[in-house]
Amino acid sequence: MAFDYKKEYKEFYLPPQKPGLIMVPEMQYVAVRGRGNPNEPEGDYKKAMGTLYSIAFTIKMSYKGSHKIEGYFSYVVPPLEGLWQQEGMEGIDYTRKNELEWFSMIRLPEFVTPDEFTWAKREVEQKKGIDVSKAEYFRYEEGLCVQCMHIGSYDEEPETIRKMEEYVKEAGYRVDLSEGRKHHEIYLSDPRRTAPERLKTVIRQPVCRKDG
């Protein structure tokens, strides 16, 4: 059986629909930075998806080739994730999508080192002819966060975020968005195949004590 991060780490990928606090350790990702409306058909966000999945699946399928990665194990490619912000704002204004700054990413297994990541990029460029120069090897430790499962369209997320903010306030915390701590989403549904009202998205935001 292939290792499935969603099933093995349900606390990070399958939270309840009620907000809760969680300590998130450091994880590693393949990531691409960008800016603009993610819904543009030929925009940078769509291009970033091609980069992320090309590298992620090159690593996953590496066992079939001559390049053997030390410590490799069979696994399911984890879901797409995204860190989001807007310049000059603490939260996200969903009516101003052109101003969104995003950091799209896919989690990498623990056996992927910076050197193996470089190999995967080179492999994609040489064998698929895809420019993946914008792809980064990224390590991210979120620390204490509030998270919740959001079911519905992306444009309806503000109501779920409002409930999360109320929860942390009552618990003696506050949302702590900053340059190093960002609004985080994990996409468990394919919007091309799922009705908007049934989309499942993990929403996560960093928090700290009110007096912190």
Automatic annotation (TrEMBL):
Pfam families assigned to the protein according to its UniProt record, in alphabetical order: GyrI-like
Q: Which domain of life is it from?
A: Bacteria
- Name this protein carries in UniProt: Transcriptional regulator
Organism in which the protein naturally occurs: Sellimonas intestinalis
Domain called GyrI-like small molecule binding: residue spans: 21-206
